[in-house]
Amino acid sequence: MEEKKLKQKTYKFPAGFLWGGATAANQMEGGFHEGNKGLNIADVLPGGKERLKILAEPGFNFEIDPDKYYPNHEGIDFYHRYKEDIALFAEIGFKAFRLSIAWTRIFPNGDELEPNEEGLAFYDRVFDELHKHGIEPVVTISHYEMPLNLVKEYGGWRDRKVVTFFERYVAAIFNRYKNKVKYWMTFNEINSGLAFPIMSLGFSIEKEEDKFKPTFQAFHHQFVASAMAVKLGHEIIPDSKIGCMIIFAPTYSFDSNPENVMHALQEERLFNNFCGDVQVRGEYPAFINRYFKEHNIELDIEEGDLALFKEHTVDYIGFSYYMSRTEKKEKTPEEIGEGNMIGGVKNPFLQASDWGWEIDPEGLRIALNKLYDRYQIPLFVVENGLGAYDKVEEDGSIHDDYRIDYLREHIKAMGEAVEDGVGLMGYTAWGCIDLVSASSGEYSKRYGFIYVDKHDDGSGTMDRSRKKSFFWYKDVISSNGERV
């Protein structure tokens, strides 16, 4: 009897699903001194694996060292090549393109009274180009690019004055782009401040014992600023959708030992749920009270702050998913995973990327279910991808089947989550065009469907070319995820 061939499962994504790609201004634009742009945090982070050390250790002086290389200064020159890149995005079939506005293009020092017209005009041109190709812009307001002046003069988000400066910035871009941008997110990966506050909160921790109060006070100021942005967005752009954006890494217990289960629960609530609870539910979660008490944290909360949180919650949750996290209460240095930037131990059931990031597609389905169960508002996977070394063949082709395999399994996991009943509005693959890695400042850690000829030593032509994954993703989008 002839063996029946198993029919490959197909997935049905919602009509109008926002397929696309994601980037950040500081990692791709370049032109760091053009158009009256001011310096931001990313401009003083050197390239190379020492960047991780800088982010983790005290004593960073936020200065440019002439003996070091700063790849963010050039990025991939999107500042001059945006038309070429957007045409390539349109060729793939993007429905949406996630990008960020560089705060220092709009307010070079962060504390000016009036915005910089050259910066505003640049994004006018970018949004117009996107709309010309039928691509919906999804804009992150602040993506690891805080004005350096606000870091040096005010101590970053520790100072309440920064809330006022941010509100002025938000009002300027909402008023300027109210007819061009519908989808917004306030702070990129806001909970990353727990792991590396330099990029997210605008300061480094000088003493371990001093980290708790300034970190959570800075979070409070960001929550105020985010709620103000939601309020302004709904007033200035009535049909807008304003989201928050978090890193989500579902946390597993290493085993069934109740101590490890409880430890994993505590770690997950602090990292995955704390920021989301404030921005989605509009209040500090009950579990944080004990944490504050145990770490002697007393926040300076002004009258009206808590009411602002409650009245101006976000419309959707954007989140990045790269890996899960496995926790054990007592762990040895040998057990810690090489690439686990957010803690945890090695998971014996998972493989890892070239950079040690554990690969867990099922974890994305778990993440989507956990988030939707908790909040019951639309979800948007705004970052997911594989950083890998790509080889250019003699004929110029790039056979990145490993990237296709990675993305395919994660998209299948999203399809399963949709069948589970999760309300999912879109997917923008991270680094849809090769760019500078945020964590390591490397060009060689490539994510894109589009190859950029630029290398860690600064060499390269910046020429663009299509990888094999380019054509695969084009087919995924054209079939609305059925041909994955």
TrEMBL record:
<dbReference type="GO" id="GO:0008422">
    <property type="term" value="F:beta-glucosidase activity"/>
</dbReference>
<dbReference type="InterPro" id="IPR018120">
    <property type="entry name" value="Glyco_hydro_1_AS"/>
</dbReference>
<keyword id="KW-0378">Hydrolase</keyword>
<comment type="similarity">
    <text>Belongs to the glycosyl hydrolase 1 family.</text>
</comment>
<dbReference type="InterPro" id="IPR017853">
    <property type="entry name" value="GH"/>
</dbReference>
<dbReference type="GO" id="GO:0005829">
    <property type="term" value="C:cytosol"/>
</dbReference>
<protein>
    <submittedName>
        <fullName>6-phospho-beta-glucosidase</fullName>
    </submittedName>
</protein>
<feature type="active site" description="Nucleophile">
    <location>
        <position position="383"/>
    </location>
</feature>
<dbReference type="InterPro" id="IPR001360">
    <property type="entry name" value="Glyco_hydro_1"/>
</dbReference>
<keyword id="KW-0326">Glycosidase</keyword>
<dbReference type="InterPro" id="IPR033132">
    <property type="entry name" value="GH_1_N_CS"/>
</dbReference>
<dbReference type="GO" id="GO:0016052">
    <property type="term" value="P:carbohydrate catabolic process"/>
</dbReference>
<dbReference type="Pfam" id="PF00232">
    <property type="entry name" value="Glyco_hydro_1"/>
</dbReference>
